[in-house]
């Protein structure tokens, strides 16, 4: 399958490769309603691409792999991803299919932010493990995927666990964010799919709500305290034997378990501008911290990047490493002169 020849093959191989669908996101300006807006801004949008961009912003070279039609819109998505330094040389190009799109209407309390997806039958829904450049993937330290990919189609449901298995065989660590999407599948379908994928995953990332789905205990999550979350982390670890399980807990920060001890990191006070993409920013910070040091460092950077992402109007984590370091150092970032 032809690759993206516009990216230089002589570049240093990415340390992390993110694999999943990137779409065209269309949003009316400001807080206008979609129904009455006469213009829409076009941006790239996808959880995995968000993670790749976040890592590049932190100085870790990242790649992104998706499947796109060989059209102007497909090239637009690749160009929009590559502009942030992300390596797109292993993108799979298709002669048929379409680019998925989604529309976002930004809300303000008490009006919620609304999202409308138009991604059915996109080229990404036909991606198989055999179409990927495994020599390219094998050079990375991490392969990051999310639970969105297996939810897209029967083909992706079958290919995702196979991709995780092949990556592990090559010695590439797999990071997997459960990232449950109720508009794409049911809790049971998600749980059954995750059971097939997670045995080959080194790092499991979940929210407390998604952990409840995985453990078939979602009805009880609302009443979970710190001890319940720690128990959930241990149960997931014992079931799938990864290197670590990490859980984000909203305003209560995040927690992780590596088989030895549970570590925590508190949340930061923030001013909410846009919550979309905050979980992806956390995943990018977590991977950065793990690559740099250890699980505790990963939680710290994950929380800091997520907090800063909440303040950015774009879904992409367009965050400066200096701001992350300043936040973690406890500096007053309200005024910089």
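^ structure tokens above, recovered residues below v
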């Amino acid at each position: 399958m032809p690759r993206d020849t516009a990216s230089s093959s002589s570049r240093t191989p990415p340390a992390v490769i993110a694999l999943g669908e990137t779409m065209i996101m269309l949003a009316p300006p400001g807080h206008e309603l979609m129904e009455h807006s006469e213009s829409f801004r076009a941006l790239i949008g996808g959880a995995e691409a968000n993670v790749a961009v976040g890592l590049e912003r932190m100085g870790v070279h990242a790649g992104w792999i998706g499947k796109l039609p060989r059209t102007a819109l497909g090239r637009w998505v690749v160009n929009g991803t590559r502009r942030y330094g992300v390596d797109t040389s292993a993108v799979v190009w298709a002669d048929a299919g379409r680019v998925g799109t989604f529309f976002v209407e930004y809300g303000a309390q008490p009006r919620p932010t609304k999202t409308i997806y138009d991604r059915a039958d996109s080229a990404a829904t036909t991606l198989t493990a055999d179409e990927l450049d495994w020599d390219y993937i094998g050079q990375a330290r991490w392969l990051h995927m999310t639970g969105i990919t297996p939810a897209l189609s029967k083909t992706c449901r079958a290919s995702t666990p196979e991709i995780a298995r092949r990556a592990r065989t090559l010695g590439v660590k797999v990071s997997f964010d459960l990232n449950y999407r109720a508009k794409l599948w049911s809790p049971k379908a998600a749980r059954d799919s995750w059971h097939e994928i997670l045995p080959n995953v080194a790092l499991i990332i979940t929210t407390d709500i998604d952990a409840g789905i995985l453990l078939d205990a979602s009805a009880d999550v609302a009443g979970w305290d710190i001890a319940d979350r720690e128990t959930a982390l241990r149960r997931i670890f014992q079931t799938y034997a990864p290197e670590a399980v990490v859980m984000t807990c909203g305003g209560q920060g995040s927690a992780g378990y590596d088989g030895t001890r549970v570590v925590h990191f508190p949340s930061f006070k923030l001013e909410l501008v846009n919550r979309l993409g905050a979980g992806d920013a956390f995943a990018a910070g977590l991977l950065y911290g793990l690559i740099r040091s250890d699980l505790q460092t990963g939680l710290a950077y994950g929380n800091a990047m997520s907090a800063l992402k909440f303040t950015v109007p774009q879904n992409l984590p367009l965050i400066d490493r200096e701001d992350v370091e300043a936040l973690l150092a406890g500096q007053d970032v309200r005024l910089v002169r």
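The chain has a mean pLDDT of 92.
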